[in-house]
Amino acid sequence: MADKTSTSSDLPTGQPAPAATEPVEGARKVNTGKTYVAKPGEIEKSWFVVDAVGQVLGRLASDIAMVLMGKHRPTYTPHVDTGDYVIVVNAEKVKLTGKKWEQKRYTWYTGYPGQRSESAEQRLARHPDKILSEAVRRMLPKNKLGRQMLNKLKIVIGPTHDHQAQQPVPFEQAINPRGKKSAV
Predict the structure, then answer these.
(1) Which of 3, 142, 145, 168 is at 20 to 30 A from 99, Cα to Cα?
(2) What end-to-end distance do the CA atoms of the chain give, in Å?
(3) How many structural domains are present in the chain?
C-alpha cells in the first residue's frame, strides 16, 4: 500500500506547486495575539504609604499583598516581582473583629518539645508589627519570590516613617485607581 502524495515532478509542467500554508477546511484559526511578559529590569517600583488606624487586619493584609505581588498593575507577571513597596504606619492600631483578640492564637515551634502559643492580645503587647506582617506573609506565594516580595513591606509603629526620600503616595491610589469603593 503505497502512499500517494503529489510532488513537483507529478505536476504538469508550468503549474506551481500548491502552497503549504493554505487553510485546511474545518481547521481552527490560530490566535496570533502577543502576551506581554514583564522582565525584572523594566518594572518601575513605586512607594505607597497606608495608615492602619481602624483598618480590619485581614482586609488590609489582602490589599497590601495584592500591591506587593503587583496584581494591581496591568503588567502583572506571576514569575516576576512586579509589585511595589508599601509602608504601613500606626500598625499597632489595626483592628480585629469579634472576639479574635482573645481567641486567635499564634503558635510557633522552638526546637524543643511542645509548641509555644500566645493570643493576639499578647502578641500586640510584645510585637505589634508581627501581627500584620504574618497576615501579609501568609497571603503571598510560598517560595523565594514571596520572601522577596515580603522584603518590600515596611511596617512602622507610630505615625512617622523614615522613607520620605522615596516620596510615597497614599495607598488608595494603588488599590483604587478608578475611584471604586474599597476596604481601605
Answers:
(1) 142
(2) 74
(3) 1
Structural domain boundaries enclosing 148: 44-175
Per residue in 159-171, pLDDT tens?
Answer: 999 999 999 999 8
The answer to the question of residue 145 being in a domain is yes
What value, to the nearest 5°, has the Cα angle with vertex 178 and ends 175 and 180?
70
pTM score above 0.85: no
Give the cell for residue 158.
Answer: 507610630
6-57 pLDDT, tens digit per residue, is 555 555 666 666 555 666 676 677 777 788 899 988 999 999 999 999 999 9
Neighbour tally for 134: CB within 10 Å: 15
Q: Enumerate the β-bridge partners of residue 115.
A: 109
Strand partners, 56: 95
